[in-house]
Amino acid sequence: MIHHPVKNQPSGFTLLELVIAIGLMSILVGMVFNTARTSLALGNTIVQTQNEEMLHQAFFELLSQRFSALPGNTRFELKAQDSGSHYTSDLTLQNVPLSFTWGGEARIAKAVQLSTVKRRSGYLDIVLRYYENEILEGSASTFGSTTDTAPFAEIVLLTDVAYFEWRALDGRTMEWQYDWDAQGRLPLQMELTMAIGAKGEEIRQIFWIPPKQNPEVIMRQMAQSGGSSNPGDPASGGGNAGGGLGLPQIQVPGSPQNGGGRPGGNGGGRQGGNGGRPGGNAGGFRPPNRNVGR
What we know:
The chain is of the alpha+beta class. It has helices at residues 15-68, 215-228, and strands at residues 75-82, 87-102, 105-118, 124-131, 153-169, 176-177, 189-196, 203-208.
């Protein structure tokens, strides 16, 4: 019986199988990395968008709080200029003192200006400027003054703004204006139309300015009314030695004018007289004058 030798079968992978396996592994690893990179980019985009929206919301809240807290004597000025491709504007608020710390020192800003600055890229920057002195024309501190009107602090609030336009609503005529320089009056509303970036959507925001009385006018009226009162006129609250304080006057029962002294007077001893009845005009104190200082 003839036995043929058994040939040993080679074990392991061939070179072709290794090449195919490595190729498949590289394809799978590439797909995983592409998916991870896309997810990271999407997450970064979402975070950036949320940060921009939060920044815009904080900007609008800052403007809303500033407009709603304006005192009655605020000097309000809006100037718009056509620079060719953009409209630039300067919104100035004066008589609105702000105290804060800048550069480690306590500073007080008498005027605040929100300006649009054009950049070389064609976009706009929204800059908030603080002034230590009054800067508007006609102010008391600007007549014959040589003080420096440069801002001592500047803060860039927004960048890459495509356009930034203001309109002011006149409460008397109910008409929108692009400029405002009415002294002693504030607009009823402020409308802001803006867009950020080349593909940014248009944002339109309305800000209400509550009407308030000017404290300077009120003090002037009080001073005029106080100076025109006659100390001897009872109608003005000055019919006694107290001047315009409206002090109560004491009625003396024995005075002839009160009808309570002479036996033959008007109701001097009779119970039915004008001065003897309970609750009569001559029975006690006269109510103090409530029109004090008016």
